[in-house]
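assembly run, all chains below
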Amino acid sequence: MKFCSECGGGIALRVPKGDDRDRFVCNDCDYVHYINPRVIVGCLPVYEDKVLLCKRAIEPRHGLWTLPAGFMENGETTEEGAARETWEEARARVSHQRLYRVFDVPYISQVYMFYLCSLDDGLFGVGPESLETALYTESEVPWDQIAFPVVEETLRAYFDDRRRDEFPMAVKAIRSRRPPA
Amino acid sequence: MKFCSECGGGIALRVPKGDDRDRFVCNDCDYVHYINPRVIVGCLPVYEDKVLLCKRAIEPRHGLWTLPAGFMENGETTEEGAARETWEEARARVSHQRLYRVFDVPYISQVYMFYLCSLDDGLFGVGPESLETALYTESEVPWDQIAFPVVEETLRAYFDDRRRDEFPMAVKAIRSRRPPA
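ok done. output:
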């Protein structure tokens, strides 16, 4: 951030009066530009004994598999955002959404919220951000080609929980980047 | 938003290529300035049969009672943020945090996350954003002076749950502003 979005003035990193940490503050109009964590919302759509995955058509992790998810938009709920992303990436409608996993990823200032849900009628397609989409049983999941640690952890938790037929919500923190393979 | 924070150029509200909704885009450098929902994190600290509330020293709702909560900061987890706010506003240390209520408030693009927790040693004080702080039993809570609907709903849910001795997590959407009294 180099210029004030309100007046076009120059920006300095300093502690505003009454605050206790550095913020981007305008040298001319004193406007404080807060930068906040971002929320990623997604779904784990289930149909019979299978889960719906998307092969990424975009960076990062182009060509690897993920759950439908993306940045929450203004004016929607987390549940609506998760359903919207599932439509956008996999042309799938979902129901019976319940919050299943929250991941705090503080080193990139992100919060992930995954909803466990049913894939309506088993129908899905391929949205513009996906190369392909597919329903996989546990043994069919391409475990060595999963795009993100939060996705792998959510999938493994789901298949474990299904054996117990209990699906408790959990909050987890991811403290460091995945080590290189 | 009037000026590009990257190059100082003018901003237009338009749909970027490959997107499906209006964004603030720079006319000069094409930088897309996303505006995302914000996360508010807080605690419901419990000590014996009492809950810890804070009387607000700041607007909005100056002089009304609330749970310790505030905007999540970059570089922290939701749990850490909730504990930090509880220290800042009520000089209280907490433990045994568990996610208890998520509120989507889409008309102001906010997500609230309240953690149920224990107030360590029953100790607390008054932070700079509070006029006073206090432990209240259910009948002592100043129910007609609660600052925000999400706070009242969280408190009522807690006292109901305590009668059952079960504290399930729930996600709720607040769809409209509280009607005027």
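The two ends of chain A are 34 Å apart (CA to CA).

Chain A has a mean pLDDT of 95.

not gonna interpret more than that til we talk
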